[in-house]
Write a structure and sequence with these properties.
Order of helices and strands: HHEEHHEEHHHH
Strand content: 5-15%
Distance between the termini: 58 Å
Strand order of the largest sheet: 1-2
Number of strands: 4
Radius of gyration: 18 Å
Number of domains: 1
Length: 219
């Protein structure tokens, strides 16, 4: 019976709930989105949004939207996708957006388009598909989410295998009650700023010795 309820929720209820709440949210917070967009443009040169190809459900590629929090082209400088609170590539406004997780809000557009869900495994770069082992496919059978079980149990501090393990557990135990629990724990994580950075940035910079702050700021 439990498996049956989980299947019904997954197939028939989760998507309508995502659409309903995404419409309400995007209308309710539209003034905030506008103010953030203005702040980003005034703070640094570059686009308001950061768009990057990510793996979606069943390994379909889509473009995820986020507010830009770093200088333009930051993913091709220094430590690439790894960051820390001291990363000089992060803009002044970007630091605030990251601490409050406001930079993730544009992903509501991805939810409206049916590419993401509010809750699910985080969308990963396309190259991560090579990291999947046999048995890991359950992670990509779900739509990626803005938050998820791994996000509220360590977030960026988790290693890749740990994230996979928690995302597969979520897939096996998916339910409305669990999603509500994740929403509540997400609010707590945002308030206490838990797991925003992985802590691996400093080690990468030290190892490569390739991130020159003066050079980064001039680009």
């Amino acid at each position: 019976m439990g498996k049956s309820k989980s299947s019904i929720y997954r197939r028939l209820i989760k998507r309508p709930l995502d659409f309903f709440f995404s419409v309400i949210l995007i209308v309710a917070i539209s003034p905030v989105l506008f103010l953030v967009a203005v702040a980003i443009k005034l703070d640094s040169k570059g686009p308001v949004f950061f768009k990057q190809e990510r793996l979606g459900q069943d390994a379909k590629v889509f473009k995820v939207y986020k507010f830009r929090t770093m200088i333009t082209g930051a993913d091709k400088i220094g430590s690439g996708i790894f960051t820390d609170s001291t990363d000089p590539r992060i803009t002044r406004v970007g630091k605030i957006l990251r601490k409050t997780s406001i930079d993730e809000l544009p992903q509501i557009i991805n939810i409206l388009k049916g590419e993401m869900s509010f809750i699910g495994p985080r969308p990963v770069p396309v190259g991560h598909l090579q990291k999947y082992n046999v048995g890991d496919e359950k992670r990509i059978q779900l739509k990626p989410g803005i938050t998820g079980w791994a996000q509220v149990n360590g977030r960026n501090k988790l290693t890749w295998p740990e994230k996979i393990e928690k995302d597969i557990w979520y897939s096996n135990n998916l339910s409305l009650i669990l999603d509500i629990k994740i929403v509540l724990r997400t609010i707590k994580s945002i308030l206490f700023r838990e797991g925003i950075y992985s802590g691996r940035y400093a080690n990468i910079v030290k190892k490569n010795n390739s991130l020159d702050e003066g050079e980064v700021k001039s680009k």
